[in-house]
Write a structure and sequence with these properties.
- The chain folds into two domains: 314 residues, Rossmann fold; 143 residues, Isoleucyl-tRNA Synthetase, Domain 1 (Orthogonal Bundle).
- The relative contact order is 0.11.
- Strands 1, 2, 3, 4, 8, 13 and 14 form a seven-stranded parallel β-sheet that branches.
- Helix 1 links the parallel strand 2 and strand 3.
- Helix 6 packs across helix 10, helix 17 packs antiparallel against helix 18 and helix 18 packs antiparallel against helix 19.
- By secondary structure, it is α/β, with parallel strands linked by helices.
- The protein starts with a strand and ends in a 15-residue tail after the last strand.
- Helices cover 49% and strands 16% of the residues.
- The protein is elongated, with a radius of gyration of 25 Å.
- The mean pLDDT is 95.
- The structure holds ligand ME8.
Length: 509
C-alpha cells in the first residue's frame, strides 16, 4: 500500500469546460481510481484558476465583477465533472481564503530567502495564455498559440530570480530521471533549462484582481505565480505541516504540454527557493486536435467546430458517460497528440464497446439464461483463459503505474478478445447442458468478472452493471486488487440477461 496524490491543472474559469479540459480530468480520474483499486491512499485534486487579466476581461465583457463571474463558471466545471463521474477528493478555487493564505506564506519564504527583487518589466504579453513572449518566438508580434496580437507591457514589478536555479535544476533532472514523463517532454524541459533561464516578473500593479503581495500591497501576484501554488494549498501548506509531509513526496501533476515550462521549470525552482522538495512527478499529456489545431473554445467561437460537439455534458448525453470516458482514455497514448472527431468516438464505440465487450457479456448471459437456467456456473481452477487473464492483469497494472491508460485498456481488450475467441472455439450455444458446458461458461464468467475489475477505472458505471449482470454483489472497485484480482473466484450466481450494454450506433446517426 502506498500513497498517490494526483492533480489536474486548475482550469481557467473564464469560460465553460470543453472536451480538452475533460481529457486531462478523465485521465487523472482513471489514474486515481486505479490507485484506489490497488489499495493506495489517494488524494485527487482539481479546481479552477480564477485570477489574472483574462478572467477580469471575460467578467467585464459579460458585465460581472470578476468573482461573480468565476462563481458561475467554476460551478460549470463542477457540473461537468459530476456528469463525467470524476471522483475528485478536493476541488480548489484560487479565490478561496485558504489559497490566499498559502500563497502569501509560500512567497514570503521565497522573499525572505532573497530570491525576489524589484525591477522594471518591458515586453510582449498574451492575455489568453497569460504568458510573456519574446519577439523571436512570436509570430511577427502575434501569439504562437492563439495567433492574436501580443500586448506591449511596461511596469515596475517584483521579479523571481529564476536564473539562480539553472544549475540546481539541471542537477535535479539528472538525479531524478523519472521527474518528467514521457521522456520526450523531459528532454524538452531539460533543453529549455540548458538554453539559459531569465528572471521572471511575478507581480502586477496594472490590475487588482489577484492575491495581494504581502510585503507590497500595491501589487498582486501574477496569475501563474499564484496558480501553481494551489497544489500546496490543498494539502495544507502553511496550516498543517504533517499533511504536507504526508502527500507532497507522492505528488503527481498531470498537465497539458503547453504549460510544461511553468510546471517543469518555474515550479521546481519555486519549490527550491522556498526550501521545499519539488513535486515528485509531472506527466505531460498531448493535445486533442481538430484539423491539426489545439481544440478549445476559441475554435467554437471561430465556427471551426460546433460548441455542442466539444462540450463534455453534450457529448456524454450523446454517447453515454462511460463510452466518452473510454474514448478519451483509449484513443491516444497519454503524451501524444491525437485528432478528436465524432466519427472517431463512434468507431471506438462500435468496435471496442458494442462488438467486443458488449457482445461478450450478451453472449455469456444469453447462454446462461437458455442453457443453465439463469445460474452462472462456478469457474474452474485451471483453464486456458487463466493465463490470458494473468497476462492482462499484470500488463494492465504495469501500464496504469506508468500513466499509460491507453495501454492498460489495450491489454484489457486482449483479454476480452481471448474470451470471445474461447467462446467461438467451444461454441457453448451448440453444446448440451451439462458439465462440459458449465466448465466453459464458468471460465467465461470468471474472465468477465476480471474484465469488470480492470475496466472499472475507465468505465465505473459500466463495470458495476457488468458486475450486477453476472450476479455479483457490491462493486468491482470495492476490494483491493490483491484480494479480487486472482483467477477462480467466480463461484456461481444468478445471471441477468439485460438489454444490450452498448446498442450499436449507425454511422449516419
Ligand atoms: O492553462 N487537448 O488553464 P486552461 C488536451 N489555468 N488537453 C487540453 C486541451 C486539448 N485540446 N485543451 C485544454 C491553464 N487541455 C491554467 C493552468 S495549473 C497551475 C494552471 C487541458 O483552462 C490540458 O491539461 O487553459 C491543459 O494543460 C489544460 O487543459 C489547460 O487548461
Amino acid at each position: 500500500m502506498g500513497r498517490f496524490y494526483i492533480t489536474t491543472p486548475i482550469y481557467y474559469a473564464n469560460d465553460a469546460p470543453h472536451v480538452g479540459s475533460a481529457y486531462t480530468t478523465v485521465n487523472a480520474d482513471a489514474l486515481a481510481r486505479w490507485h484506489r483499486l490497488a489499495g493506495d491512499d489517494v488524494k485527487f485534486l482539481t479546481g479552477t484558476d480564477e485570477h489574472g487579466q483574462k478572467m477580469a476581461d471575460a467578467a467585464a465583457k459579460k458585465g460581472f465583477a470578476p468573482k461573480e463571474w468565476t462563481d458561475q463558471v467554476s460551478e460549470r466545471f463542477r457540473e461537468a465533472w459530476a456528469v463525467l463521474n470524476i471522483s475528485y477528493d478536493d476541488f480548489i478555487r484560487t479565490t478561496e481564503p485558504r489559497h490566499y493564505s498559502t500563497v502569501q506564506k509560500f512567497l514570503s519564504v521565497i522573499y525572505e530567502n532573497g530570491y525576489i527583487y524589484k525591477d522594471v518589466y518591458k515586453g510582449l504579453y498574451c492575455v489568453s495564455c497569460e504568458d510573456y513572449y519574446t519577439i523571436e518566438v512570436s509570430e511577427n508580434g502575434k501569439c504562437p498559440i492563439h495567433h492574436s496580437p501580443l500586448t506591449e507591457m511596461e511596469e515596475e514589478n517584483w521579479f523571481f530570480r529564476l536564473s539562480a536555479f539553472e544549475d540546481r535544476l539541471l542537477e535535479y533532472y539528472v538525479d531524478h530521471p523519472g521527474f518528467v514523463t514521457p521522456e520526450t517532454k523531459r528532454n524538452e524541459a531539460h533543453a529549455f533549462i540548458k538554453g539559459g533561464l531569465r528572471d521572471i516578473s511575478i507581480t502586477r500593479t496594472s490590475i487588482s484582481w489577484g492575491v495581494p503581495v504581502p510585503w507590497d500591497e500595491r501589487h498582486v501576484f501574477y496569475v501563474w505565480y499564484d496558480a501553481l501554488i494551489n497544489y500546496l494549498t490543498a494539502i495544507g501548506y502553511g496550516r498543517d505541516d504533517d499533511e504536507v509531509a504526508n502527500w507532497w513526496p507522492y505528488s503527481n501533476h498531470l498537465i497539458g504540454k503547453e504549460i510544461l515550462r511553468f510546471h517543469c521549470v518555474w515550479w521546481p525552482a519555486m519549490c527550491m527557493a522556498a526550501d521545499l522538495e519539488p513535486v515528485h512527478h509531472v506527466h505531460v499529456n498531448g493535445w486533442l486536435l481538430v484539423g491539426g489545431e489545439k481544440l478549445g473554445k476559441t475554435m467554437a467561437a471561430e465556427g471551426a467546430v460546433k460548441v455542442t460537439d466539444i462540450e463534455p455534458i453534450a457529448l456524454a448525453r450523446e454517447f453515454g458517460v462511460d463510452p466518452l470516458r473510454y474514448y478519451l482514455l483509449r484513443e491516444t497514448a497519454l503524451g501524444n497528440d491525437g485528432e478528436f472527431s465524432l466519427e472517431g468516438v463512434v468507431a471506438r464505440y462500435n468496435t471496442d464497446l458494442a462488438n467486443n465487450l458488449g457482445n461478450l457479456v450478451a453472449r455469456v448471459t444469453t447462454v446462461v439464461a437458455s442453457k443453465c437456467a439463469g445460474v452462472g456456473p462456478a469457474s474452474q481452477s485451471e483453464s486456458s483463459l487463466r493465463a490470458d487473464a494473468e497476462v492482462a492483469l499484470n500488463a494492465a497494472s504495469e501500464a496504469w503505474e506508468v500513466f499509460a491508460p491507453q495501454r492498460a485498456l489495450e491489454v484489457t481488450w486482449d483479454l476480452i478478445g481471448a474470451t470471445n475467441a474461447y467462446l467461438e472455439l467451444h461454441a457453448p450455444w451448440k453444446m448440451e447442458p451439462g458439465a462440459a458446458l458449465n466448465a466453459v461458461m464458468g471460465d467465461a464468467l470468471e474472465a468477465i468478472r476480471l474484465v469488470a475489475i480492470l475496466v472499472s477505472p475507465a468505465m465505473p458505471s459500466v463495470a458495476e452493471e457488468i458486475w450486477r449482470r453476472i450476479g455479483l454483489t457490491g462493486s468491482p472497485a470495492a476490494a483491493p486488487l490483491s484480494k479480487s484480482a486472482t483467477w477462480g473466484q467466480y463461484v456461481g450466481a444468478s445471471v441477468v440477461k439485460g438489454d444490450p450494454l452498448f446498442p450499436r450506433i449507425k454511422s449516419d446517426e
